[in-house]
Specification:
alpha/beta, 7-stranded parallel sheet, two-stranded parallel sheet, 387 residues, globular
C-alpha cells in the first residue's frame, strides 16, 4: 500500500493559507497545518485528509526544520505584517527580511536530502508577488533585466499524483513566463509596447521576495528540492475567522460599510489585476499537481486583466449601497501618505497564460461576483447584512 504524501502548509491560519488548507483537506493526503494558532480546515463534514495541527513561531531558530520534517511538499504562505497590519517593509527591517526570505533559506536547508539518501526531492511552493519583475533562474544571482530565459520545453498537462499518494519528481525545465506585464493606460493602443521605464529602486518587500525566489531556483537546480514560485497580484475576498483580508479592496469595503468615503491616492486610473482568494488557493493546488513541469521558475498567476481602481471602488460603493439602503459613499482622491512608494502609482498586470498552459488553471470567479461575495461577508461582520 502506497502511503499518503505529507503536505505541510506554513502560514496555514492566514488569509490565503486558510483557503489552501480547506482545498487540501478534501484530498486523501496527510495534511499538516502550521501557524501561530491552531488551524482547523474550514470544510463541511469530515476531511478526506488526515490532518495534523501544529502551532509554531517560525521566526524562532529551528522551528522551520521541525515544522517541515518528513514533508513531501511544503506550501510556504508565511507573511510578515508590520505594526499596521500591512505587508510593507522598511529598508533595514531585519524581522521582515527574515520572514520574507530568510525562512525560505531555512526551508531549503531543512529539506535538502542527506548525501546518498534515496529520497525524492520535496516540492516547495512559494507565494511571491507580481511586482517582483526581475527574472530569476538557476545561478542568476543579482542579475536584473526584463527578458525571460529560453525554456527547456515543459510538457503541458504533466501531473504529479498527490491525490493518488505519489510524489512528483522534478522534470525538464519548464517554459518560463515573463513576469508582470504593463497594462495599457487610458488612451494607449491595444498591443502597444511601452517605452523603457525610469529605473526605480525596488521596495524592500519586492527585494525580499526576489531573494527567496532565487534560493528556490538555485536549490532546484542543485537537485535539493522541487521549487516553484507563484507571483500573485492583488488578492482579495473573505476568509474564515480569525484570518482577515487586510488588502485595499476589503479595507475600502469596510469604510463604505461604516458610511465613510472611499479614498484613493491617485485619480483612479491606476490599474491592478485583482484575483479572488479562492482562485488564488486553487492556483496553489494546481501548481502542486504539476510541480515537475513548473520546477525551478516563477510563474505569474492572475486574471490577465487590469482594472482601474477607481472603477473597482465605485463598484464597491454601489454594492454596499444596495445592501444597506443608503446612498453610495463618495470616492475621493486624497494625498498619499509618506510611506507610499512608486509602485503604488504604476499599472500592474500579469500574463497567466504560461501557467494556464501547463496546469489548466484559470480563475473562475468574475470580478463583479468576487466584489459581491466580499461585501456580503464583510456586511455580516459589521452587523449590516440586510439580506
Amino acid at each position: 500500500m502506497v502511503s499518503r504524501p505529507l503536505i505541510t502548509v506554513l502560514g496555514a491560519s492566514g488569509f490565503i493559507g486558510s483557503r489552501v488548507v480547506a482545498e487540501l483537506a478534501r484530498r486523501p493526503v496527510r495534511l499538516r497545518t502550521v501557524a501561530r494558532r491552531p488551524t482547523v480546515p474550514a470544510v463541511t463534514g469530515r476531511p478526506a485528509a488526515d490532518v495534523e495541527i501544529r502551532t509554531a513561531d517560525l521566526s524562532r531558530p529551528g522551528r522551520v526544520a521541525e515544522a517541515v520534517a518528513g514533508s513531501d511538499a511544503v506550501i510556504h504562505l508565511v507573511a510578515h505584517l508590520n505594526g499596521a497590519g500591512t505587508w510593507r517593509a522598511a529598508d533595514g527591517d531585519t524581522a521582515a527580511e527574515r520572514l520574507n526570505s530568510g525562512l525560505v533559506q531555512e526551508l531549503a536547508d531543512a529539506l535538502r536530502p542527506a548525501v546518498g539518501a534515496d529520497r525524492t526531492p520535496a516540492v516547495v511552493l512559494f507565494a511571491s508577488t507580481a511586482t517582483a519583475t526581475t527574472p530569476v533562474g538557476p545561478g542568476a544571482g543579482a542579475r536584473s533585466g526584463s527578458g525571460a530565459e529560453a525554456g527547456a520545453g515543459a510538457v503541458p498537462g504533466a501531473r504529479s499524483r498527490y491525490e493518488a499518494g505519489t510524489v512528483p519528481v522534478p522534470g525538464p525545465g519548464p517554459r518560463p513566463e515573463a513576469g508582470p506585464v504593463p497594462v495599457p493606460g487610458p488612451g494607449s493602443e491595444a498591443g502597444a509596447v511601452p517605452g523603457p521605464a525610469a529605473a526605480v529602486p525596488a521596495p524592500a518587500y519586492e527585494r525580499h521576495k526576489l531573494a527567496a525566489e532565487q534560493v528556490l531556483a538555485d536549490a532546484t537546480a542543485a537537485g535539493a528540492l522541487c521549487g516553484v514560485s507563484l507571483r500573485l497580484p492583488t488578492v482579495f475576498g473573505p476568509a474564515p475567522a480569525p484570518a482577515a483580508d487586510r488588502g485595499v479592496v476589503s479595507a475600502m469595503a469596510r469604510r463604505a460599510l461604516d458610511g465613510a468615503p472611499i479614498t484613493m491616492w491617485h485619480d483612479g486610473t491606476v490599474r491592478r489585476d485583482l484575483l479572488y482568494v479562492q482562485d488564488a488557493a486553487t492556483a496553489f493546488t494546481a501548481a502542486l499537481d504539476h510541480a515537475p513541469a513548473l520546477a525551478g521558475r516563477h510563474w505569474s498567476v492572475g486574471s490577465g486583466r487590469g482594472t482601474p481602481l477607481g472603477d473597482v471602488f465605485r463598484a464597491l460603493a454601489a454594492t454596499v449601497a444596495s445592501r444597506t439602503g443608503r446612498p453610495p459613499v463618495p470616492v475621493r482622491q486624497v494625498e498619499p501618505p509618506p510611506f507610499a512608494s512608486a509602485a503604488d502609482f504604476r499599472d500592474v498586470g500579469v500574463d497567466p497564460e504560461p501557467f494556464r498552459s501547463v496546469t489548466g488553471w484559470a480563475p473562475r470567479v468574475p470580478l463583479h461576483e468576487a466584489v459581491d461575495r466580499t461585501v456580503a461577508a464583510l456586511a455580516g461582520t459589521h452587523g449590516k447584512d440586510l439580506l
